[in-house]
């Protein structure tokens, strides 16, 4: 069992590999990512400080390096899941004197401040965000790759789909690339089935080509055969 949040869950999403699960509570301020194998907390992000936010959707990117979150506000947040490299990074940081200072400050902060205060400092912020033209609607978001470019797709309950570009280097505000109006898409109605129920079907009588009847034709063939057979010779 994973103790994700104190309040009830509002959204949950699994990564493509199924090894990670992201959760959001009804408060909608904190997003957490856990390991499915052992239930350990891998990431914790703060979506914002607004109260009464209703989370609409959570979704991992197809590469599992990003997590997007939509709500009833006009902002879609994108969080970057920083994958730590093997112990090389920690070794370099430990050898540097700045590494010692950073660890000392972190340890002091954890001891001196309450846990709910230190959580605010350790929570990650949004790597990128997209602004929607309308707030208050329900939106569903997903991050995928289109023509080798990372794109954010947001479907709105009013019938529009927005496509945003994502800068994987700098992050920041996503740029709107396309806007699709699903209401204007014409659909071809399916063909109507051929119904014969209640309609009398009249089968026309078969017509034969003009000519002699079968009996007369047979009689004529017999007469012709009798004429062509030569009489037998008597010995």
From TrEMBL:
Organism field: Lutzomyia longipalpis (Sand fly)
Similarity remark: Belongs to the WD repeat PROPPIN family.
Higher taxonomy: Eukaryota, Metazoa, Ecdysozoa, Arthropoda, Hexapoda
Coiled-coil regions, chain positions: none
Protein name: Putative autophagy-specific protein
SUPFAM superfamilies per the UniProt record, alphabetical: WD40 repeat-like
Region Disordered: start-end pairs: 213-235
Alphabetical list of InterPro entries matching this protein: PROPPIN, WD40/YVTN_repeat-like_dom_sf, WD40_repeat_dom_sf
Pfam families named in the record: PROPPIN
Keywords tagged on the record: Repeat, WD repeat
Signal peptide positions on this chain: none
Gene3D superfamilies: YVTN repeat-like/Quinoprotein amine dehydrogenase
């Amino acid at each position: 069992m994973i103790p994700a949040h104190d309040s009830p869950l509002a959204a949950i999403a699994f990564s493509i590999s199924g090894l990670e699960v992201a959760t959001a509570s009804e408060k909608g301020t904190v997003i957490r990512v856990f390991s499915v194998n052992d239930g350990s907390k891998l990431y914790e992000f703060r979506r914002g400080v607004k109260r009464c936010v209703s989370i609409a959707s959570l979704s991992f990117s197809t590469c599992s390096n990003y997590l997007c979150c939509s709500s009833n506000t006009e902002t879609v947040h994108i969080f970057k899941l920083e994958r730590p490299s093997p112990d090389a990074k920690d070794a370099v940081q430990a050898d540097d004197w700045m590494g010692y200072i950073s660890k000392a400050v972190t340890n002091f902060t954890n001891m001196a401040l309450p846990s709910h205060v230190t959580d605010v400092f350790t929570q990650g912020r949004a790597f990128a965000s997209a602004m929607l033209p309308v707030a208050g609607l329900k939106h569903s978001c997903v991050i995928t790759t289109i023509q080798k470019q990372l794109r954010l797709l947001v479907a709105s309950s009013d019938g529009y789909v927005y496509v945003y570009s994502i800068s994987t280097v700098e992050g920041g505000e996503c740029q709107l690339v396309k806007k699709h109006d699903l209401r204007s898409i014409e659909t071809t109605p399916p063909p109507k089935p051929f119904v014969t129920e209640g309609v009398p079907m009249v089968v026309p009588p078969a017509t034969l080509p003009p000519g002699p009847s079968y009996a007369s034709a047979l009689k004529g063939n017999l007469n012709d055969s009798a004429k062509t057979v030569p009489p037998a010779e008597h010995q």
